[in-house]
């Protein structure tokens, strides 16, 4: 099964993706996570990309596409994979299409997680992430048991460099300008599934599962 988790920043792509990984046992490829890991490792590519993402700008297509091409060729992707945060431009979507065709694969579905803007801003501005295991929290909706400490591994929670008010604003603008046109792109190809994702993670996952059952038939 090859899936794309689609939606604006803060829609819950990472959260829902993690649940699909658990249930279906296929890997999730998050381009944002790959960039954050590369930057933390001080790789040249990682630092180059950070100059963009830390300001809420999209990383140039040629950088993103190269990373995805390498990752989907890994053996654990043979049975399928979930793309979280890729594609984000029409050019990336075209490249994905070509990549899949080259290997005789096809995209099973694009899950469009729809969330109202005030809710996105509320989610992003309160988001905290474990610096070690990546678990996510929210200062009011899902706080950790001890302030700023991860419930799972005891490490410190941090705020993502791009979850500042300026970057959040820029990311939402980038989404509307460059990413939202993909809704029409995938609608035309008959693979788009809309999901109202304004509720909490459990309620949204029920809807995600309903779509996945349909896709798997
Ligand atoms: P995310 O973790 O998906 O919110 O991604 C964090 C940031 O990484 C985004 O705001 C972009 O700056 C960058 N990024 C992630 N995926 C892509 C992509 N497919 N194309 C361009 N930039 C990306």
Tell me the number of strands.
8
Distance between the termini: 11 Å
Reported by name, the CATH topology is Rossmann fold
Instruction: Give Rg in angstroms.
Output: 17 Å
What is shown here, in short?
By secondary structure, the chain is α/β, with parallel strands linked by helices. It has helices at about 15-25, 30-40, 45-55, 60-70, 90-100, 115-125, 165-180, 180-190, 200-215; strands at about 1-5, 30, 80-85, 110-115, 125-130, 135-140, 155-160, 190-195. Strands 2-3-1-4-8 form a five-stranded parallel sheet, with helices on both faces. It has a three-stranded antiparallel sheet with strand order 6-5-7.
Provide a descriptive summary of the structure in words.
This protein is of the alpha/beta class and 217 residues long. The chain has a single domain, classed as P-loop containing nucleotide triphosphate hydrolases (Rossmann fold). Helices cover 49% and strands 15% of the residues. It contains nine helices and eight strands. The protein has helices spanning 13-24, 31-40, 44-53, 61-72, 90-102, 117-126, 165-179, 181-188, 201-216; strands spanning 2-6, 28-30, 81-84, 109-114, 127-130, 136-138, 157-158, 192-196. The longest helix is centred in the last third of the chain and has 16 residues, at 201-216. It starts with a strand and ends with a helix. The mean pLDDT is 95. The structure holds adenosine monophosphate. The site of adenosine monophosphate (AMP) has 19 residues, from helix 2 and helix 3.
